Amino acid sequence: MFGKEIWDSLTQIEHLSDGTISEVYVGVSKRNNTAYVVKIQETRFKRPPHDAIRGRNILKDLQHPHIQTLLGSFFDPSTSCLHLITEYKPFVLSEISNKLRKNVKINIVSQLADALQFLEEHKILHRDIHPNNVLLDSEEGPAYLTDFSIAWSEKYPGDEKEELISQIGTGHYRAIETLFGCRTYRHEVDRWSFGILIAELFSNIPLFDDGSSEGWPSELQLISSIFQTLGTPNVEMWPELAACPDWNKFIFHEYPPKSWEDILPNTNSTVRKVVSKLVTYPNRASPAFVLENIHL
């Protein structure tokens, strides 16, 4: 079935969630009794970095076992909305991470690393890696990376042909350079966010604090939390900072870095090694490094 055919066949339609430019529904097809998710995205008013058309174009070209497959799409001219249809996955990583066995967590990390390596090879940035964007078939996996609504690629740059938008990511998963207005980033932003996801998957506690737990999320709070954990960077040890337009607007206390044994005391050395190579200022490790080093 194509996108519109699937939509027309759905019954028992229920509202799942709302996004910045989208509404998400789930329904069961009366043709094959399969549950599908329909993401309805507004296209009349762009809210950068959200770009429904670009996200659809990127996703329709992707075929990977751990990236959620776009089964179909269609545009409704009466509402100016784009409908994206995927198969329903019953579990979200953020909701069940505390229940997962260690070997399942290792498998999930490996599967996501494989998906991210695939994206890097195809010059695609996801730009919103966090546990809400990882779906699972069961509490045993497998895992699927989802939600490409703010993704970017060299093939489909959208309005970001010259420079990229710095306002990307979610909460404390945002890469540090984007907090200082960096617009020349590439895959390192996904590597940073992936590292935070891995750290929290095994430690069950937030790696950084952006103030959300108190109800007042703040970029300055997040910057302070990162610096107090990893140490305050400078252009000598991280030359790319010089290209961040907001770096010189503030004077920061010079915090020393904590050891990863202190940052992640309840995780093993393998997890600490992997996270320390991803959540670092310069020279972040590739997803291939994660695949080679994450194990029981």
Automatic annotation (TrEMBL):
Residues 10-296 form the Protein kinase domain. GO terms for molecular function: ATP binding; cyclin binding; cyclin-dependent protein serine/threonine kinase activity. SUPFAM superfamilies: Protein kinase-like (PK-like) (SSF56112). PANTHER family: CELL DIVISION PROTEIN KINASE, SERINE_THREONINE-PROTEIN KINASE CSK1. InterPro entries: CDK (IPR050108), Kinase-like_dom_sf (IPR011009), Prot_kinase_dom (IPR000719). It holds the Pfam family Pkinase. Keywords: ATP-binding, Kinase, Nucleotide-binding, Transferase. This is CMGC/CDK protein kinase Csk1. GO terms for biological process: G1/S transition of mitotic cell cycle; intracellular phosphate ion homeostasis; negative regulation of transcription by RNA polymerase II; regulation of G2/M transition of mitotic cell cycle; signal transduction. One of its GO terms (cellular component) is cytoplasm. The lineage of its organism: Eukaryota, Fungi, Dikarya, Ascomycota, Taphrinomycotina. It comes from the Eukaryota.
